[in-house]
Amino acid sequence: MSxxxxxxxxxxxxxxxxxxxxxxxxxxxNGLPIDAIAATLPxxxxxxxTAPNPERARWQLRDGYLLDHLIDHVLAAERxxxxxxxADDLRWVETRLAQRGPTAPWTDLIRIDxxxxxxxxxxxxxxxxxxx
Length: 132
Fold this sequence. Notes:
mainly alpha, single chain, globular, 0% strand
């Protein structure tokens, strides 16, 4: 029962903060833990000259929660280009495959909705069939 109450309290506090903060402050607040985590990771270079720069070796994270929700938190911080750079990096894809299996990288990619990054999996993939 205490886990349920904690989850409800957490959601209530989160919703109150979201309604009180404006979009700029909310994005800044969401960016704080992303920046703190990034500071603990080594710098990284893109795998190819034309690939986006992942900035930090986020594929070295080992915490399940962070691996599962990093893309969500980066997007909440309004850093779409950074989320794209991470999710499109083959080192991240390899980590997610090992961690959660073949649907994990797809789940990360379909969370990012940009015209700059057309998703290779829209209609024919079992994960995203019927979603667009």
